[in-house]
Amino acid sequence: MSQNMYRQGDLLFVKIESLPNNLKERSNMVIAEGEVTGHNHRLSEGRVLENRMGDLFLQVARAARVLHQEHHTITLPPGRYRVVRQREYTPAAPAKIREVRD
Fold this sequence. Notes:
about 100 residues; mainly beta; six-stranded antiparallel beta sheet; four-stranded antiparallel beta sheet; 12 strands
C-alpha cells in the first residue's frame, strides 16, 4: 500500500484508512498555531479533530486547502489524515526533543 503524504512547513499530513475512536472536533479550522510569529496552519473546509493526548487528525470530504501566511497553500485530496509535527533535538533544552512551531 502506498502512503500519500503532504507537507506544509513544520506539519506533515499522512493519509490514513480510518480515524481513531473518541476524537473531539475543534471549534475552529486552525490545525496549528505558531509560537513565535502568531501565524497558523488552517484548513479551508473539512474537520479538524483531536484526541485526549493532543494528536491531530483531519477529515476532508472534498479537496481542501491548507493555508498559512508564510507557506505556499497546499491542497489535500478527500480522505482522512494524521497530522505529524516536525520535531527537533536541542541538547541544551530540558526535554531535549521538542516539536517545531513556526
